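Lab notebook, design round three. We kept the backbone fixed and only want residue identities now. Task for the bench partner: fill in a sequence for the structure below.
Input structure tokens:
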């Protein structure tokens, strides 16, 4: 089965961000579309399901008050270092610090100490919210994708 692609406009709608924000994140390499990147005027980006999940996590971190620069560092770390699937990861947010919960360890992604209020972002919950948004925007093909991802 071929992977379902989401246009930039559809991806932005499903995730709950503006197209302009999505375009900025792609142009600045925060997240690149996995299926097709823009290659000049008039070309279209195509995002896959995992891209949508990452976009929703980015949005959740920004909504929690994490600075975009910190989100970039966190995602660079997650992509390069983390052995876990992003959907099963748990991030702990402390002020502007982002920590990855890996089993019984907390890994300070930002490499800073500090104190503050801890918020926990279970990415599995973000995945559930994303799936609900996809069903809301869904056609039968997308509903099948969501069902397959839930297994």
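Proposed sequence:
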């Amino acid at each position: 089965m071929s992977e379902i692609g989401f246009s930039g406009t559809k991806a932005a709608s499903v995730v709950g961000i503006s197209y302009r924000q999505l375009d900025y994140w792609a142009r600045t390499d925060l997240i690149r579309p996995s299926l097709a990147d823009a290659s000049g005027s008039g070309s279209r980006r195509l995002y896959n399901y995992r891209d949508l999940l990452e976009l929703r996590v980015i949005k959740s971190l920004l909504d929690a008050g994490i600075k975009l620069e910190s989100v970039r560092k966190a995602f660079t770390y997650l992509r390069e270092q983390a052995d876990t699937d992003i959907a099963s990861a748990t991030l702990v947010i402390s002020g502007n610090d982002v920590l990855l919960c890996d089993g019984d360890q907390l890994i300070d992604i930002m490499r800073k100490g500090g104190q503050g209020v801890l918020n926990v972002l279970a990415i599995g919950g973000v995945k559930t919210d994303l799936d609900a948004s996809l069903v809301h925007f869904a056609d039968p093909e997308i509903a099948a994708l969501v069902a397959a991802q839930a297994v």
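Keep this in mind before ordering anything: Residues 6-149 form a domain with the Multidrug-efflux Transporter Regulator; Chain: A; Domain 2 fold (CATH 1.10.1660.10).
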